[in-house]
Design goal:
heterodimer, A: Alpha-D-Glucose-1,6-Bisphosphate, Chain A, domain 4, globular, B: Arc Repressor Mutant, subunit A, 2 domains, 3-stranded antiparallel sheet, 5 helices, 12% strand
Chain lengths: 166, 113
């Protein structure tokens, strides 16, 4: 189990997830830094993410989209506030319109990632997500949930077709 | 392009102050009148009232007038709803970090498929 702790504070609409990995800090950092590696874990298998632009330097921009099973696309962006390889990234994460530009009508969330070496080897990673308001959280997660539902449906399809004669 | 989020600013500003964080934490357990809050802190009634107004604008507390008292409480309904939404976020991140661990452990991870 990689996740070691999850703290949720509804008052500040913040969640902190802690995880530990048996890999050196530089290798863990690569999974954030390299867009080809990032897209292997950011989106669920049925809603894979494609990173078109990815610049983790302070002030840098990231632009990505997720493709659904029906070919539908939903776009997202990051605006990097702070980055200190291989220890820290802070960014704003929001939704983009079809042109890839940030959608100003949609709320954004604040993300902070902290990596540190564990005393006996391996890497500790803490990810803090903060939402500006409950309404914003609802809006952001509802869109995320649609992707989650599609994932569950996709798995169901897989199970059903496994039983069907081919 | 920079997208400003006025709500984020309001919430972070509201919670940046120690007294205001304390008021939110206190008012979770029940209603407190502004005058009883003013007695708790070494500051004037007007100063506490200003703090409460900042919290109210950020949607963190609800203020109600009852008789001559102004009662402050943390919005429990909003909090419960927020807690349920955070449960969903936890599921998203647990799945994401499972995949993170798999990619990290994959010896061919540097290869482009």
């Amino acid at each position: 189990m990689t996740v070691t702790d999850v703290r949720k504070d509804p008052t500040t609409r913040t969640m902190t997830v802690s995880a530990e990995f048996d890999a050196p800090i530089e290798r863990v950092w690569e999974l954030w830094q390299d867009p080809r590696l990032l897209e292997r874990w950011w989106g669920p298998p049925t809603y894979p993410a494609t990173f078109v632009e990815h610049d983790l330097r302070p002030g840098g921009r990231t632009s990505y989209y997720m493709t659904g099973p029906a070919g539908d696309r939903s776009g997202g962006w990051w605006k990097v506030i702070a980055a200190e390889p291989p220890r820290r990234i802070e960014f704003e994460d929001g939704f983009a319109g079809e042109d890839g530009e940030p959608n100003p009508g949609m709320p954004t969330m604040q993300m902070r990632v902290d990596l540190s070496e564990r005393p006996r080897g391996g890497t500790h990673m803490a990810i803090v997500t903060t939402f500006p308001s409950t309404e914003a959280m609802e809006q952001l997660l509802t869109m995320g949930m649609e992707e989650g539902m599609t994932l569950a449906m996709g798995q169901m399809d897989g199970l059903l077709s496994a039983d069907a004669p081919s | 392009m920079v997208v400003d989020s006025p709500t984020t600013d309001r919430v972070f500003h509201a919670l940046a102050d120690g007294t205001r964080r304390d008021i939110v934490a206190l008012a979770v357990s029940g209603e407190h009148s502004v005058s009883s809050l003013a007695r708790r802190y070494p500051m004037s009634f007007a100063a506490v009232q200003k703090h409460v107004a900042v919290l109210e604008r950020a949607g963190l507390v609800i203020k109600e007038r009852r008789g001559r008292e102004q009662l402050v409480r943390t919005d429990i309904k909003t909090l419960r709803h927020a807690a349920r939404l955070l449960e969903q976020l936890e599921v998203v991140w647990r799945e994401r970090l499972d995949r993170f661990g798999e990619v990290l452990a994959d010896p061919t991870r540097g290869d482009i498929p």
